[in-house]
Amino acid sequence: MNPKIRKTLKIAAWALPALAVAALALSAVPAIRIGERNAFGTELPAATVTHPRAIAQAYDYLPKRTRFDAFVALKDGRLLARWGEVDLPINTHSVRKSLLSALYGIAIEKGYLRLDQTLAELGIDDAVVPLTAVEKMATIRDLLESRSGIYIEAAGEAQGMKDGRPRRGSHRPGEAFYYNNWGFNVLGVIFERRTGLSIGQALYNWIARPTGMTTFKPGHVIYDQPRYTEHRQFVVFMSAADLARFGALYANGGRWGALQVVPEAWVAESTKSRSQVHGMDPFDGYGYLWWIDREAGTVWADGWGGQFMIVDARRHLVLVSRNDTGRSLLQLGLFMLFDGDGWRSHHQKLHEWMIQASTGT
């Protein structure tokens, strides 16, 4: 046999079983099921389009210049534009954090939690990497601001987060901003322990129902439990259309019609810049799990893979752009191999056109 052919067969004999094992392991992770439309789901009325040409430009731009699989824009809670698979539940990635921020605002108003509660008071530790007494002084507010001072490996970290993690013990709670998945994941744990609700059930009851979301179900939140920390990561799947409804709450002071869904004061406080941000254009600030663009007067929910939402409250405008990264870790792995991240600049361009379309400016 030709030596080159023999070598190729040996490589294949080793690689194929390895790939099969990896695929089996990844596919064994829970995946969401796409179910029926919610009985309480409602259709959104159409918004008034002032400049149809701007909509046409956006629709022409989306398939040619972006990687987005779905796009939705709302004006005053009405449908301004939609393109692609807007009803497909997609992994929100870090957009989940802004969703959790809203749940905290509601839970605090209901009396389940307080911003000044410490991890020690809440009984939070990490059985794998125990916290120090100083780390346990971190409050819920510190975690929401991503200023906990706890620098431990966490589920869902991107490489940049790992590379930028400060040395453990280098900052006390509240002293320094670091985008920290350990704190974000622990906020999920705290929420579920104190309210007695899963994040999926809370999103369904407190936000999906009152806003008439059409596809979100409690089972669209799944969990990833790593070995290197006690605290699991919650993963939220939500369609572009349903996510836009959530954004519309923040564009309207937490209200959906006449109903106050998220406390108005919380909407204002959670989207106020509390830390300066550098190297994350266009963001220059961070609130309670929201990115802030003070120059543009907008707030963003931003997730890996091209999950973007702009809330332009001044204009009562919401834009959502999404990339489908899959509904299981196997599909996510394939996305990472063959696709790529989205671009905030593309979403900003779409924002410009939606301003023109809805206001004529």
Automatic annotation (TrEMBL):
Source taxon at top rank: Bacteria
Pfam families: Beta-lactamase
Entry GO MF terms: hydrolase activity
Domain Beta-lactamase-related, residue spans: 87-343
Signal peptide: 1-20
Entry keyword set: Hydrolase, Signal
Its EC number(s): 3.-.-.-
Residue ranges crossing the lipid bilayer per the database entry: none
Name of the protein described by the UniProt record: Serine hydrolase domain-containing protein
Native source organism of the sequence: Dokdonella ginsengisoli
